[in-house]
Specification:
- This protein is α/β, with parallel strands linked by helices.
- It folds into 3 domains: about 5-170, Rossmann fold (3-Layer(aba) Sandwich); about 190-320, GAF domain (Beta-Lactamase, 2-Layer Sandwich); about 345-520, Hypothetical protein af1432, CATH 1.10.3210.10.
- It has helices spanning about 45-55, 75-80, 100-110, 130-135, 150-190, 195-210, 245-250, 255-260, 300-345, 350-365, 370-380, 390-395, 400-410, 410-420, 425-435, 455-470, 485-495, 500-510, 510-520; strands at about 5, 35-40, 60, 65-70, 85-90, 120-125, 140-145, 220-225, 230-235, 265-270, 275-280, 285-290.
- The strands form 2 sheets. Strands 1-3-4-2-5-6-7 form a 7-stranded mixed β-sheet, with helices on both faces.
Amino acid sequence: MAEHHPGQADSEHLVFADESVREDSDSTPAHQNLPWNILIVDDEEEVHEITRIALRGFVFDQRPIHLISAYSEKEAREILYGRDDIALILLDVVMERDNSGLELVEFIRHELKNLQVRIVLRTGQPGKAPEHEVIVNYDINDYKTKPELTAQKLYTSVIACLRAYKNLVTIEKSKIGLELIIDSTASIFQNQSMRAFAGSALTRLIEILSLEKTNGIHSAYAVALPGAPAVILSGTGKYKALTDQFLDDALPLDVISFYHSHKTTGREQVLGDAYVGVFKTKEGFSSLLYLAGLQELRPMDMQLVRMFANTVSIGFDNLSLSREIVNTQKEVILTLGEVVETRSKETAHHVTRVAEFCYLLARKYGLDQETSEILRLASPMHDVGKIGIPEAILNKPGKLTSQEFEVIKEHARIGYEILRKSKRYIMESAAIIALQHHERWDGKGYPQGLARQDIHIYGRIAAIADVFDALSHTRAYKDAWPMDQVIDFFESAAASQFDPELTQIFLSNADEFIEINARFPE
């Protein structure tokens, strides 16, 4: 910390301050750092001039001061309404009214709710505002009578107030930063795509550091899966267009070198005007956060970046584990569906095709990506209830008797009962599909006889997918139908067996459904 004495401390009172010092602090400072803003509020022009002379050349913490003048309570209010970057107010008590200064203190603390700015009350009429009463009843930080306020005491008071203001701002920024980190991680963890996750993380970090108002900030977030090269998942500024490129081909050489030197251990460092952090996770991910074009990154900012980036790197672990759980669920569902279909001597690819048909039709219908994916994951369980149907009926080569058909119809309810007890959303969806995939648009289906919109959209989609696959492939009780005959069937069954809108979408995109058949043949 650099604290420069203004040079006039040997004078006895402000009015005798040395006027032979350098240029007024209101002129543009030569320092790169932003000045401390100090507001002088006094109705006497002489007080303003004396204060400027006394504080000429003042520097605290390598930052100069910028003095702003207000000559009344009203003028001070107007200034304070428009800005929140004033560190210190040197405030007179008696101006338009005997208590103007005290009214201004109340306005600052209670109406503006500005608890950070330091307030030094200066009065030439202490009888109007007794020190004991004012200190007890008003939120001020120092009280001085004008005759006692020597240049040395003014200097000491300003130093103390600026130091306190700096600490308060640091605490507040840390508090806000931590709140943003908590809020940000809660929101970005909702993203299930690694690219979306990284992009959201980068955006929120820039918000936390208040860099969105700064021009020339370029950033990149790169991630490497275990055993794979690092790829840029998201970027801003000049790195925005580098998404999906390898880190080694896109970033500056010193950043690349830093990443490879520390990708197995993790480290962070400031390189010139840039911050680079490498983070290693328990699941084997390594990630790189790169922020370039920073004029200054304070220790507090470094702590926020470190905390946020570590939290996000853990998020990549959690995202990976979540995806692994979903993939495991998918594998279990497919395997169980294949076991059921094998028991009924249908091809193992039946459930895979039905899943792909359902997803394609859902997307064509306009369901969102997440909902369509749930349908794809759940639909292989549509016939799980067949596990409770005797094999003699399941695999009967000829036409079923009416009694046998009543037995086989029970597979819808059996499947529902098996699946409905789970609280997992995929299983809950599978239970709906199992129960409703044989319902008909005209209400003549089973097991509940539901009609039209009373049938869940999952059930209406699965009905088309299941029948299309059954008709276009060989079963124990029939041969595969020619595709033109299948198409004719759906055209005739629209608005009776199937949802007419979904049927038209299916027919309009039949080539894509046929292509799925080709991808997963018998």
